[in-house]
Request: fold
Amino acid sequence: MNVIETKELTKFYGSLFWKKKEPALDKLTIEIPEGSVFGFLGPNGAGKTTTIRLLMDLIKPSSGEALLFGQPPDNLEMKRVLGFLPDNPVFSTYLTAYEFLDICAKLLRIPSTERKKRIEEVVDTVKMSKHLFSKLGGFSRGMTQRIGIAQAILNKPKLLILDEPLVGLDPHGRQELKDIILAQKNRGTNVFFSSHILSDVEKMCDRISILYQGNLLCYGKLEDLLSETGSRVHVKHGEDEIIKDLLPEATGTIRLSDGSWELVFQNKPELSKRLKSMAEQNPKALTITPSRENLEDFFFRKIENAQQII
Ligand SMILES: Nc1ncnc2c1ncn2[C@@H]1O[C@H](COP(=O)(O)OP(=O)(O)O)[C@@H](O)[C@H]1O
Ligand SMILES: [Mg+2]
Reply:
């Protein structure tokens, strides 16, 4: 079953009498299968938070529909298996972390006999045990984010929805939070998180989508989306004939310290065929590794294309 499915999900902000001309989200259709960390990418204003609010039943769509585990967002049973971290969590500053999490646990109807143990478990997961009885008002951004994650995983959710969880954190804080999110994935939680920072996504996600001005530009498995842009060919030391043959076609050459060569080629069908057959004939002399586009190049190429169309 798909964890999340949307069909032409559309949102116009405004009232009946006053509507924005352009939708914040325009006919979003995606399917996210179980078992993935899904990166929902896009620049500011793309419609990420709008989508998440629709999934969390905080706002209603203008048209189209969303399903989580096959159920509409207002299904109460389904809501019990969700964990959610909003984009700018604001918690009551005068509560301690414990008091806050205790209220959340009560709202989630975790039985009183289990509450204390569960709270201790989640603060341990987010490495905040030391600050359990400190007031939230004194917490840094990173600490607040961690308490936000702690409340989101109190009910051992099947799906964790995080809106820009890494924003405003220093590199160390980001790494720690990434590790926490990955640990959730490893215990079988589906994760859906939005980000406008590409490097977050490349290392953590199996699948991504890119949203731009309310339009979905692409989605799929990361490795399928990043196309092969060329190949790197490693030629062993002493294979001068091969080097002489290939050198004119190479767009980059590196002479390595052991006397071997690394040649870079662009993706051209004829050339790729020739390289492949050379490698088959001389498997010891040369090896080919396809080189892939990185996510940053891919992202900006997609957005540039979209700017020309939209
Ligand atoms: N409550 C709102 N009322 C009117 N317009 C809104 C509201 N929330 C968001 N928008 C607009 O919708 C668009 C998408 O915003 P948002 O979903 O917050 O994008 P993102 O999270 O990707 O930065 C933006 O143009 C934003 O100005
Ligand atoms: Mg947002």
